[in-house]
Amino acid sequence: MVKMSLDPVQVMSGQVKELKVAPSSNGDSRESWEEKEKFDQDNLGLTTKPKPPKPENAVTVAVSSRVLFRTELEQKVFEQKGVEEYLRYQIEHENEPFAPGPAFPFVKALEAVNAHLRELYPQSEELFDIVLVTYNHAHVGIRLINTINHHNLFIERFCMTGGSSPIGYLKAWHTNLYLSADADKVREALAEGIAAATMFMPEKQTEVSQSQLRVAFDGDAVLFSDESERIFKAHGLDKFFEHERDHEDTLLDHGPLKGFLEALGKLQKKFYAKGQRLDCPIRTYLVTARSAASSGIRALKTLRAWGLEIDEALFLAGAPKGPMLEKIRPHIYFDDQMFHVEGAAEMGTIAAHVPYGIAQKHNPKKNTSVGK
Q1: Are 16 and 44 in contact (CB under 8 A)?
Q2: Closest C-alpha to 116, from 105, 128, 104, 106
Q3: Which residues of 257-295 are buried (b: 16+ CB within 10 A; e: fewer)?
Q4: Is the pLDDT of residue 30 over 80?
Q5: 136-164: pLDDT as tens digits
Q6: What are phi and psi of 108, to 5 degrees?
Q7: 218 an active-site residue?
Q8: Whole-angstrom distance, CA of residue 325 vs CA of residue 347
Q9: Which residues contact 331 (CB under 8 A, 6 or more apart)?
Q10: Cβ neighbours of residue 62 under 8 Å, at least 6 residues apart?
Q11: What confidence score (pLDDT) does residue 362 get?
Q12: Rounded (to 5) percent helix, strand, coil in the chain
């Protein structure tokens, strides 16, 4: 008897209408049997969908359902009517796809990069692997799968925790980045050494590139530690500049998102190896409130010593970041200060908050940072 493994996503979404396997006989040759099996698989579409890479080989990006999709209405049902009514509502509406959320353009860009990588390296598993992480009960899974298929996303890995913390699972997935709407879970992930950020939906959203993934980073307390920021908070601007000049050749310690920049750089080099440096589908940006002449050189020397390349570096000397980000149009921008996140969002940029470092102890509404 032929054993055929069906993709559960295809089955649940109705893509596979009927399974037909030709009857066999003991007289079939091995060649005819293999041809028959290949024919059946091709007609079912089972060989056209790429396999997800092994977690240890991939750049794993875990996204919560609340940032990948718009679930505000469902969240209100949960908060106002409780979990049982929430589950009933989700089941009743499971054939209605969710609308795209703030992480959706970022995930689509990751998939576009994967398509390029598969063209250049058909056998390589060094790809982005997207994991959907949700506190939802498994009953909600059908609606999520239907939504994923509706939007033509390639997400095969689900982690549905039924209200439990997902952090242990993130570590098991070798997660390189975790994006969530739950700030507490983001802080929990950061405490475990997992790069993480809280995402928000801006009132307006700028169109982003469909062919090039663009990721922008703040410097201190994001790529770097908050060492310099602490000097500024404790002793003021003059001492900050003096400290940076005195420590120009001393490397900054790493921040919570250094590892994700390293992962991006690893994939960029695969394109460089094929002569695609100038038209690489991944582009990275450093957008910092540091001044170039007085404090920028230490940041650049640190990146160089780490063996990391930033495609573009913008030293703004305290100027607002929003207008620059509006020009860059990144799929995501990471910053540790809510002031900058909100300023970026006002300009239509998808910005994510990294709740790390000394800035979390200060008023997030005031622009008090220079060592950014």
Answers
A1: yes
A2: 128
A3: bbebbbbbbebbebbeeeeeeeebbbbbbbbbbbbeebb
A4: no
A5: 888 899 999 999 999 999 999 998 988 88
A6: -60, -40
A7: yes
A8: 8
A9: 105, 106, 109, 208, 209, 213, 214, 215, 350
A10: 130, 131, 132, 133, 159, 166, 170, 173, 175, 177, 178, 179
A11: 60
A12: 45, 15, 40
Dist. CA 150–CA 166, nearest whole Å: 26
In eight-state DSSP terms, residue 357 is S
The two three-digit tokens of residue 215, written as one number: 């990721």
Choosing from 129, 184, 218, 238, the catalytic residue is 218
For 165-211, the DSSP string reads --HHHHHHTTEEEEEES-HHHHHHHHHTT--EEEE---SS-----SS
How is residue 4 written in tokens? 């055929």
Res 43 pLDDT > 60: no
Question: How much is the pTM?
Answer: 0.82
| Interval 41-50 mean pLDDT | 51
CA distance 355 to 353: 6
Taking alpha carbons only, the member of 159, 63, 141 closest to residue 109 is 63
> How far is 92 from 197, CA to CA, in rounded Å?
32
